[in-house]
Specification:
- The structure is a single chain.
- This protein has one domain: Alpha/Beta hydrolase fold, catalytic domain (Rossmann fold, 3-Layer(aba) Sandwich), CATH 3.40.50.1820.
- By secondary structure, the protein is α/β, with parallel strands linked by helices.
- α2 packs parallel to α3 (85-99) and α4 (118-132) crosses α5 (147-161).
- The protein has an 8-stranded mixed sheet with strand order 1-2-4-3-5-6-7-8, sandwiched between helices.
- The protein has helices at residues 3-19, 24-39, 85-99, 118-132, 147-161, 185-188, 198-208, 243-255, 281-296, 303-306; strands at residues 46-52, 57-63, 71-75, 102-107, 140-145, 169-173, 231-237, 260-265.
- The protein contains 10 helices and 8 strands.
């Protein structure tokens, strides 16, 4: 672990106890600030165009050096209770700049004001909008972190239910796929995880939906029948209490004969890719390669040749 990684690890551990007492409005402000920090190094590589829907806002992020013909539908995290357009713009900008592809980042409605299924309905509307704009479903890639990662899988389930073509691929970072909060990794990584608390996730889960909905596959995506799901790329930190959420979803995808790759980064924390660490360069290259493969419909492409 690099010096920068160790410093971030320590900082997150210091902040963690306070996260469970921070009011939602301050949590949302913190996410907005993080979005600005994430986009700052890349914002001169892209340009933006606002898009408005009936119940939510979205933003197109176009890379100045774009080469890929497809599009990423980016679904942000935040426990379903935080994350505005500024936050969604943050990693959306990173995705567009690093991968030279158009991104539609959406600011879906948040709980507790708008509980389940509001976020899912907004993601569904955004996906249908992309189809109406002329993008074939095979050229759409869903990307989401944390709650947004789980939402990406739930969106695919809803698309199947509605007989709408599934996207060409799914990329998730530390996806939250089991809102029952019962996985073994909550115990195993309880003292290792520097950034996330079980009590916090329990709070978010209760704000997002009623107990009777917890096992609904549109809420806890680990319970989905994954038959014919698109190829999937999953990143997760080895020290996360949410580690099993990624392992279980990966195992279920394989069980249903889907193509899935799970990358577990030792000693890393929740959504570690957001921290722009040098040791994660290979993970960013993996995302780029995955996008090229989905775009071209091939299994493997050498990244150096594609660049």
């Amino acid at each position: 672990m690099s010096f920068k990684s160790k410093l971030i690890h320590i900082s997150l551990k210091i902040i963690r106890p306070f996260t469970k007492i921070i009011p939602i409005k301050y949590k949302r402000k913190a996410h907005s600030t993080l979005g600005k920090i994430l986009s700052k190094p890349y914002k001169f590589n892209v340009y933006y165009k606002k898009e408005y829907f009936n119940n939510f806002q979205a933003e197109w992020i176009f890379p100045l050096n774009g080469i890929n013909n497809g599009v990423i539908l980016y679904l942000h995290g935040g426990g379903f209770i935080a994350g505005n357009m500024e936050y969604a713009r943050g990693y959306g900008t990173v995705l567009a700049s690093n991968n030279r592809i158009k991104v539609l980042a959406i600011s879906y409605r948040l709980a507790p004001e708008f509980p389940f299924p509001s976020a899912l309905e907004d993601a569904f509307e955004a996906y249908k909008y992309l189809l109406s704009e002329g993008f074939s479903n095979e050229k759409i890639i869903l990307c989401g972190e944390s709650a947004g990662g789980g939402l990406a899988f739930s969106l695919c389930k809803k698309l199947k239910d509605e007989n709408i073509g599934l996207p060409g691929g799914i990329i998730t970072i530390s996806p939250w796929t089991d809102l029952s909060i019962t996985a073994e990794s909550y115990k195993i990584n309880k003292h290792k995880d520097p950034s996330m608390l079980k009590s916090l996730l329990l709070r978010y889960s209760k704000l997002y939906t009623n107990p009777e909905n917890i096992e609904n596959p549109l809420v806890s995506s680990k319970n989905i029948n994954f038959t014919n799901f698109p190829r999937t790329l999953i990143f997760v930190g080895g020290d996360e209490i949410l580690l099993d959420d990624s392992i279980v979803i990966h195992d279920n995808l394989i069980k249903y004969n889907c193509e899935s790759e799970l990358i577990i980064k030792p000693k890393m924390w929740h959504v570690y890719l957001f921290y722009n660490l040098k040791e994660n360069k290979s993970d960013n290259e993996k995302i780029y390669q995955f996008i090229l493969e989905v775009e071209s419909g091939t299994e493997k492409i050498k990244v150096d040749e594609a660049r």
